[in-house]
Amino acid sequence: MDDLLKFTYAVDGDNFTSAGQASVNVKKNLRQLGFDAETIRRVSIAMYEGEINMVIHAGGGNAEVFVKDDCIEIVLTDNGPGIANVEQAMQEGFSTAPDNIRSLGFGAGMGLPNMKRYTDSMTIESEVGKGTKITMKVLL
Amino acid sequence: MTVRQLANNEGFEALALPEEDRVIDGVYIGDLLSWVMGRAKADNAWITIMSNINIVAVASLADVACIVLAENVSPEQKVIDMANAKGINIIKSALTAYEVAVLLSKNN
Ligand SMILES: Nc1ncnc2c1ncn2[C@@H]1O[C@H](COP(=O)(O)OP(=O)(O)OP(=O)(O)O)[C@@H](O)[C@H]1O
Ligand SMILES: [Mg+2]
Q1: Which stretches of chain B drop beneath a pLDDT of 50?
Q2: Domain range for residue A92?
Q3: Predicted confidence (pLDDT) per residue in B33-61, tens digit
Q4: What is this structure's pTM?
Q5: A38-95 pLDDT per residue, tens
Q6: Measured at the alpha carbon of residue A12, what is the angle toward residues A6 and A16, in degrees to the nearest 5?
Q7: CATH 3.40.1390.20, domain B3-107, yes or no
Q8: Ligand 1 atom closest to Cα of A134?
Q9: Which of A1, A38, A41, B99 is the most exposed place for a label (fewest CB within 10 A)?
């Protein structure tokens, strides 16, 4: 199927102040396109969690959002350390976030579970030492 | 109650009110950001003691009506500037999270 629209963002790995900007921008774009509030909320929260994970755990990465006829697809790609045990990472409460990150309010181990909960499908491809690719879809 | 009406209460101070007419519907209390993202509902007043810059993005994406910083927690000026730029309301209160929630509950 043809992509109707595509947004691409480079997510900076060492700038916490701007972390989340890509997601906030996607939210704005989807609102301008006239999507309903709940769809926008689901897409932008799922993307934010993934974006923050790339900043905290992977030193940054790349985010792409495709607006299609039947869904909005979010693809997050990084060249970080990868996730050794995806099943464990997906559990609520599991986190390897260091203390300085926890003091900012991150590290509850709820990000990946939120991404799954707010989207209709989510796949994680990850290789230790190479990186991680997460694909999420919210059906329209 | 609107965000402006909440800010007008004794012991409350408006730090950023770019969307002062937003109506508050319900309350969420929490400091762990992913927990808030997962559980807070749109139009909630989000009561927290977390004041770093990331609360602005969380409030925007979770679509809460406002952030209420309890117990007189004060954010840095750049957080207030960012909130104004992104249309996020921030109110500071001398009350505890519990007391703010009770006040909101009485007025709903
Ligand atoms: N892109 C990534 N690259 C490498 N590891 C990751 C990545 N995303 C997640 N992880 C790993 O999976 C764990 C769980 O991620 P999750 O988002 O659920 O929690 P968290 O980021 O630690 O805390 P929270 O999201 O609640 O602030 C992380 O602690 C980290 O070990
Ligand atoms: Mg996370």
Answers
A1: none
A2: 3-139
A3: 999 999 999 999 999 999 999 999 999 99
A4: 0.94
A5: 999 999 999 999 999 999 999 999 999 999 999 999 999 999 999 999 999 999 999 9
A6: 120
A7: yes
A8: 1
A9: A1
User: Are the CB atoms for B44 and B105 separated by under 8 Å?
Assistant: no
Map chain A to HEC letters. Answer: CCCCEEEEEEEECCCCCCCCHHHHHHHHHHHHCCCCHHHHHHHHHHHHHHHHHHHHHHCEEEEEEEECCCEEEEEEEECCCCCCCHHHHCCCCCCCCCHHHHCCCCCCCCHHHHHHHHCCEEEEEEECCCEEEEEEEEEC
- Structural contact between residues B60 and B84, judged by C-beta atoms closer than 8 angstroms: no
Percent of chain A beyond pLDDT 90? 91
| Number of compact structural domains in chain A | 1
Residue A82: CATH number of its domain: 3.30.565.10
Q: Are B63 and A140 spatial neighbours (Cβ–Cβ below 8 Å)?
A: no
- The distance of B51 to chain A (nearest Cα, Å) reads 9
Residues, CB within 5 angstroms of ligand 2 (ion): A 53, 111
Nearest to A105 among B33, B61, B62 (CB): B33
